[in-house]
Amino acid sequence: MGLHERRQREKESIRANILDAAFSLAKTEGWASLSIRKIADAIEYSAPVVYDYFENKEAILYEISLNGFHCLHIELLKAQRKFETPEEQLTAIVEAYWKFAFKNKEYYQLMFGLGMQCSGKGMMKEEFSSFQDMLYDCTYEIIKKNGSNPANACHMSHALFSAVHGLISIMMMRNDDIPSTMNKTTLDETVSAFVKSL
């Protein structure tokens, strides 16, 4: 391995360590308490080294949120590919989204700015809207199959996304006074009613 390749590999390693340290700190202390100084201490480098790789904390958060959206996208595709009909696919996609949110709470909070500023404002990537796009596709196919007006697919799928995201947000921000089973039942009933309404 040449000197250039070795240096490049070292840079990639430090960059990955910065992101890993930031995510680990967020899991233990929360996103709000994250700072460049804490990240630097965790990887045993000085703060200027972190700034060599990321302009600011916002840039680190954005990079981590991108990874979260990528992971979510993979889970949604896996769920969708298990079924043939758009009704089954829609239900599976919502279920996968729900499970991802609570299995990866730190990611989800960062991705959607729950209890904090949403990272990456104005810097959207394809994965950011994959859930909404997949909901739309399933909704459109169900509407078309039922002979309803396809022009309603956008509005209807957005309403479902809002309901699902709203239930998740309520559980994450007020989980002490709302039973999780109540919200999951509400989710299942909402999806079932949504499919029947198309």
Automatic annotation (TrEMBL):
Looking at the record, the residues that make up the HTH tetR-type domain are 12-72
* Keywords attached to this entry: DNA-binding, Transcription, Transcription regulation
Report the PROSITE patterns cross-referenced here: HTH_TETR_2
Q: A single Gene Ontology molecular function, please?
A: DNA binding
Which regions of the protein are recorded as binding DNA?
Answer: 35-54
List, alphabetically, the Pfam families matched.
TetR_C_33, TetR_N
Alphabetized PANTHER family for the sequence: ACREF/ENVCD OPERON REPRESSOR-RELATED, HTH TETR-TYPE DOMAIN-CONTAINING PROTEIN
Annotated protein name in UniProt: Transcriptional regulator, TetR family
| UniProt source species | Chryseobacterium soldanellicola
